[in-house]
Description:
13% of the residues lie in helices and 53% in strands. By secondary structure, the protein is mainly beta. It has a single domain (2-21, 46-241), classed as Porin (Beta Barrel). Strands 1, 3, 4, 5, 8, 9, 10, 11 and 12 form a nine-stranded antiparallel sheet that branches. The longest helix has 16 residues, at 14-29. The radius of gyration is 21 Å and the shape is elongated. The protein starts with a helix and ends with a strand. This is PorT family protein.
Amino acid sequence: MQKTHIRHQLYLLRFPLVLILAILWNTRSAQAQTVLNMEEHDAKPYYFGITLAANNSYFKLLHDAVFLHQDSIMVVEPLKTFGFNLGLLGNVRLSEYFDLRLNPQLSFASKNLYYRENFPTRETTKNIESILLQFPLQIKFKSDRIDNMRVYVIAGLKYDYDLASNARARRAEDLVKIKAGDYGYEAGAGFEFYFPSFIFSPEFKISNGLSNMQVKDKNLRYSNVIQSLKSRMIVFSIHLEG
Length: 242
């Protein structure tokens, strides 16, 4: 199931990759000469930028055996919701084609859970709000510059800390407790468009957590039907680099 899920997320990358290939083909076939912007930028040992992003967040949910042996909660499934990120970017040049990139961000996200019950018959949505401090460390592989544009791919590791975690909360039985810390991996692709005074970089990436975020408590009825919750996020970012 894990391999199938990863293949599905990589399948989502087909749209930006097809766009990348189309732009490369059209750019190489163009005959007109272009004035190169920020020629000296490629030799900089390091540079900084800011990040604005939109995210689509959800949990990958695995049911507990308890779910199959009870007849009260009939459905529990994750819901996808939208949020946004604000961040800083630091880029260190390793070689002609490789960079090391740190992109700390403050992310506002929701990973909600939908329940349908029989006794009594009702539908419930548990809103799990998160304010995440994210610390991704990535390797960036970039193509040759084509006039005022280049293509790149990224891959790396991340650590997230949820400032809104309810792991220590004490409330009624309808609570689903979520841990504060998470770690995982990221992969994505993007463009760099060179303007006279800055670089505009749209980017698409997937960001997957590897740890079980649920704080297991068999006394919480909405929680004990779940074996594990792993975070998933699809992010579209705009980097402005100087």
